[in-house]
Batch of 2 targets.
Target 1
Amino acid sequence: VNWNEKVKQINDSMIQMNLNDDLKQRVRNSYAFSWAVHGRDENQHEWLHQISKDLRAEVFFTVNRNLIAKLPIFKGADDFFLLDVVQRMVSQLYLPGDYVLRFGGLGQEMFFVTKGTLQAMNEEETTVFSILTAGDFFGEIALIEDDCRRTATVRSFTYSHCNVLRKTDFLELLEIHPKSIRTKTLLKKMARSRQENSKKVKKISAIKKF
């Protein structure tokens, strides 16, 4: 299926769903970005599903290892643990303006930015805490705390791509790889640091309002 045929299929489907014009355009934009990220030939990676599971895992690991190995939270982690982390990650695409996290929402995953620019903001979205770009990560507090509520709102400023690691998968990996408990310790340390920085920013914001 080529690009034009695929777009026609999507348009026909959205007409049947009776979607409004704004939503239809956002869907088209999202698909166009996905096409650009994953390649024009949507079947170009079909061979990955025709090789053994172990070999496919090795391919994924080779492609993504550098993405996570350089992150401080995985410092010292062995390749077996990193391999499993890569395999558990889920790819997510975001359009400009899309919400990735909302302040106060229940946290169940951590995000690794691979493309684009995102903004972490306060609840009112009047103060930008940080700009997130390729190589950055956020949401790590959710992996180590129970009933974790998001302390910031994160929105995509450009077309963005993130790899997502779910809390359930992370905790399961720690059980499988007990020697990687150091990763959890590093996460706790970084989470505390971010929480402190967030409190400082909130205080400054409150003073400015006053």
Note: The beta strands are 90-94, 99-101, 109-115, 118-121, 128-132, 137-138, 153-156, 160-166.
Target 2
Amino acid sequence: MVRRKRHSSQGKPRTRKPSRPFPLAARQAIEQHIDTCQNPGLIYERYVHYQRKDDDWALGAPVKKKVIEATVKAQRRLGNYQDLWQGFQDRWRQTIGDALTFEAHPDFRFVSGLGRGGPLEVGFTFHRIYGFPIIPGSGLKGVARAYALVNLAEQLGASDLDGLDQLLATSDEREFWQAFDRQYSDAGEEARGLTRCFRKVFGTVGASGQAIFYDAAPLNVPELEPDVMTPHYPNYYQGPEPPADWQNPTPIPFLTVGSESCFCFAVGWRGVPNASAHEQAKNWLEGGLQELGAGAKTTAGYGYFKPRDAKPGISSRAV
């Protein structure tokens, strides 16, 4: 039996009132307490108010904007829960132990997880439990490694970054140094020492690195700021059509972390202690955050960090 879609008297699909896809009791509880919710992540990723049309749960720009505004309000309410906040800080510091740390804040704005899936089509990385913004350690390791690779290539005079990257990932130590000596026979002791340090810190295909890059934790309640990007050729990005001036620009709202939000970054170490390599890992992360940036939209000036004492401002890298 084929079900027929229900239509209004004018023959158009029936539009229902805005709703949340939950059982009735859960939906009523959410709507009763939504204005006092202090978990921004839940509002952004779970408590979205859909304007449903038949089986279409797509969101329009006005709904997305309202969700982002509600998320920002929930973030501000976090400041009322100092005991909860202090408890998180204490547990995080116990977790990192003797890790080397430094503090930094965005030069302009920062956005993490923009490409993640979610109801708003543009994602954001929240703490899984508390719902405030975090910077995942996996991403920080990537930033540090990219910066270290560029530095090492400069030391070796290497122009093929991909080739050097593949070589550094070689598991067998003897095989690696034989190939290294063939390609970089003029490498000095400083470059060779930096190469050994790179492999200790980041590991190879067959062995994990000894450096541990922890999730960066906010030192204060992070400041969320709404932003918007406007692709001018939506049909070109979504299909086979060429870019053309008659296509309608589509504003897409998204969330960012403001420049007043300070984070603490931590780099730990496992295995046999190596103070110089440990310190170098921290320096690579600091350099990567300042020179390469982290997160999305770095080519537009987002994601670059400054030491805590430096004043934030519009990034000179913005185009």
Note: The radius of gyration is 24 Å.
